[in-house]
């Protein structure tokens, strides 16, 4: 006779052992609050555990992306490249987990399927896919913004007899694509990293592109011991710069308008930023390039010229130049010789606006024009954005309210941390919070939650909830901050769109588009005022 496992009780249950969940556990330990982390994967790292596709690496400088909370950690870890590859980052995050003895606080291979609030006991009942049940006073979601991979809606995907995968589910043992006939579907940041890497050794590479994306060079290099020492000496300065920029990067917008300078000066400015490492061109541009269509058109034309210079065949170059959105109005993928891939004889770019995919067959992909045969098909087709990781869990609050239903027209939150009707559920990097250079925002988000939980413990608070008023104000504020930004006129994960997900075909406001500096100031004020703006009950 099988036995039913006893339900387990825990003060704080954290879902996810990515960068947020790891640090959350560290902070809760520091506060002496008992906590358990449930993680779906068999290892720590979240995004950097799952996304092990070829070419996966940081687009933020390694030394701006790492945790800043521990001097010892900063002293002990040497970054080997300015933009670290996935394997290095996964090792780093495991190093952090082991350095701070966090591993035994994380239960791996435990995917949470539901979280139901029990009003009479003021606790959350959390169930995993394998049927384990946890009762927890506080529930912290640390489940990421781009977590649940989405396959395209193409008939026949599973009929393919060769090897196929989504980039976000790349197998640990790898896929041998050297010398093989490879297809990549999707040309977002992930597709671009995959394509430029796979092109180095595939026999043939066929890229299926629905819409091109503007991209700019990554400018990666190795870091030797001497340079690492100089970076280390500047860590305080680096992190304080990140605290002053709207997106928490080291790149700062220029206070001038595009139209304040001559065409020659403008060109020289863009030329400098195009070739500098990282997001300089995206995040270090003139102040009006993402609010003024004419300014943005000039910038886009500059980047289009670069595409035409780098891609030999003008017809192919034209296909790689976006016409439906301006530079920087979607997340800009950073690349290393990506455009030059299309100069290789063994690479074909299939423009899905000219021939659409009809279905995947046993042998390959059939478009409206022809069937092409492949050994490997890679879907770099993105994620169910921002609310997707919440929608994947059956989250039920007071009076049987389902979070997925409440948020169907778009998320409602107070400060991105709390939702009215979902007491004691705290979201690290929830919808409507400032994202940007993720770990910078993660550290803030986790510290804010930890401070609130410490305050609750010290003051005998047993219920923490958003107020309807506070939630409405914040949701309205998120809307106000988005007004006039060109990014909100474009379909992308930033506007909550994924054409392959029901209910996500139209734009919603899923992230806070204002400055992270303002976001933190607002949240700091709430903490300074002893959380009076929230609903706290003894
Ligand atoms: P994505 O930006 O959503 O791109 C998905 C791609 O798949 C798009 O090109 C999309 O075309 C295409 N697609 C979707 N359905 C399709 C279909 N049925 N047929 C053909 N093409 C289809 O996803 P992602 O590239 O995984 O990137 C998501 C985000 O993850 C990035 O923006 C970035 O924030 C993050 N990321 C970060 C890093 C890093 O830091 N290094 C690396 C990778 C990703 P459409 O454009 O037409 O929709």
From TrEMBL:
Xref: Pfam families: FMO-like (PF00743)
Gene3D superfamilies: FAD/NAD(P)-binding domain (3.50.50.60)
Keyword Flavoprotein assigned: yes
GO terms for MF: flavin adenine dinucleotide binding; N,N-dimethylaniline monooxygenase activity; NADP binding
UniProt keyword Oxidoreductase present: yes
Keyword annotations of the record: FAD, Flavoprotein, NADP, Oxidoreductase
Source organism, top-level taxon: Eukaryota
Name of the protein this chain belongs to: Cyclohexanone monooxygenase
Organism: Cladophialophora psammophila CBS 110553
């Amino acid at each position: 006779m099988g036995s039913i496992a006893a339900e387990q009780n825990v003060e704080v249950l954290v879902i996810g052992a990515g960068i947020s969940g790891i640090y959350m556990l560290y902070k809760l330990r520091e506060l002496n609050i008992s906590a358990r982390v449930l993680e779906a994967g068999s290892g720590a790292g979240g995004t950097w555990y799952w996304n092990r596709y070829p070419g996966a690496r940081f687009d933020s400088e390694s030394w701006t992306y790492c945790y800043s909370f521990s001097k010892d950690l900063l002293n002990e870890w040497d970054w080997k490249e300015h933009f670290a590859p996935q394997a290095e980052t996964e090792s780093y995050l495991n190093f952090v987990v082991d350095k701070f003895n966090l591993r035994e606080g994380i239960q791996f291979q435990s995917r949470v399927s539901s979280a139901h609030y029990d009003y009479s006991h003021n606790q959350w009942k959390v169930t995993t896919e394998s049927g384990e049940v946890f009762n927890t006073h506080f529930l912290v979601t640390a489940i990421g913004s781009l977590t649940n991979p989405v396959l395209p809606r193409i008939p026949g995907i599973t009929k393919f007899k060769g090897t196929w995968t989504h980039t976000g589910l790349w197998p640990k043992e790898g896929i041998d694509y050297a010398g093989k006939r490879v297809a990549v579907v999707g040309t977002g940041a992930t597709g671009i990293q995959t394509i430029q890497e796979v092109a180095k050794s595939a026999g043939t590479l066929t890229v299926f592109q629905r819409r091109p994306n503007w991209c700019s060079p990554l400018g990666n290099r190795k870091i030797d011991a001497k340079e690492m020492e100089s970076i280390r000496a500047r860590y305080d300065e680096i992190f304080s710069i990140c605290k002053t920029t709207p997106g928490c990067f080291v790149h700062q917008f220029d206070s001038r308008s595009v139209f304040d300078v001559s065409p020659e000066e403008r060109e020289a400015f863009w030329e400098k930023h195009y070739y500098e490492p990282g997001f300089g061109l995206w995040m270090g541009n003139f102040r009006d390039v993402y609010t003024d269509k004419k300014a943005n058109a000039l910038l886009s034309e500059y980047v289009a010229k670069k595409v035409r210079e780098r891609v030999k065949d003008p017809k192919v170059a034209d296909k790689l130049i976006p016409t439906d959105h301006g530079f920087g109005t979607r997340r800009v993928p950073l690349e290393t010789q990506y455009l030059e891939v299309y100069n290789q004889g063994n690479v074909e770019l299939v423009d899905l606006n000219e021939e659409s995919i009809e279905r995947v067959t046993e042998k390959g992909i059939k478009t409206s024009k022809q069937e092409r045969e492949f050994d490997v098909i890679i879907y770099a087709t993105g994620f169910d954005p921002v609310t997707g990781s919440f929608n994947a869990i059956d989250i039920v609050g007071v009076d049987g309210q389902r979070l997925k239903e409440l948020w169907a027209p778009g998320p409602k939150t107070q400060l991105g941390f709390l939702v009215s009707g979902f007491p004691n559920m705290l979201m690290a990097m929830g919808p409507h919070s400032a994202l940007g250079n993720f770990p910078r925002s993660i550290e803030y988000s986790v510290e804010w939650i930890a401070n609130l939980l410490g305050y609750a413990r010290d003051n005998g608070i047993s219920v923490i909830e958003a107020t309807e008023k506070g939630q409405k104000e914040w949701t309205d504020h998120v809307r106000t901050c988005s007004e006039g930004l060109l990014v909100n006129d474009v379909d992308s994960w930033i506007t909550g769109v994924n054409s392959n997900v029901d209910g996500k075909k139209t734009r919603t406001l899923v992230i806070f588009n204002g400055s992270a500096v303002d976001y933190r100031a607002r949240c700091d004020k709430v903490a300074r005022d002893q959380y009076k703006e929230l609903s706290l009950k003894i």
